[in-house]
Amino acid sequence: MARQSGRFSSGPRLSPEQAARQGRISQIVIARLGATAAIDFLNGYDEKLGGRPLELAINSVEGLRAVEERLEDQANA
Segment Disordered: which positions (predicted)? Predict the structure, then answer.
């Protein structure tokens, strides 16, 4: 059977909890930094976090909290 092209990926899907964390951190970061800077922040490697903020936030509640705290630290710097 031929593979259909389209916008749906056959890659791993996010659980409902992961999707909720992704949506939450995306909204927070976009509101604070604007869309372009948010994309850079979420997808770039952060030394203090030891990883990409978006991945960390998606993977666990603790990661989400760490990214939120990092964003606060940047705002207060």
Answer: 1-20
Which ranges of 1-77 would DSSP assign to H, the alpha helix?
16-33, 35-43, 53-59, 61-76
Q: Which tens digits make up the pLDDT trace of 38-56? A: 999 999 999 999 999 999 9
* Reported pTM: 0.82
What is the four-CA torsion angle of 24, 47, 56, 35, rounded to 10 degrees? 30
Kindly tell me the sign of the dihedral angle through the C-alpha atoms of 63, 69, 72, 76.
Answer: negative
Residue recorded with tokens 């030394």? 47
Beta bridge partners of residue 51, listed in sequence order: 46
Residues 6+ apart with CB under 8 A from 57: 21, 22, 24, 25, 42, 63, 64, 67
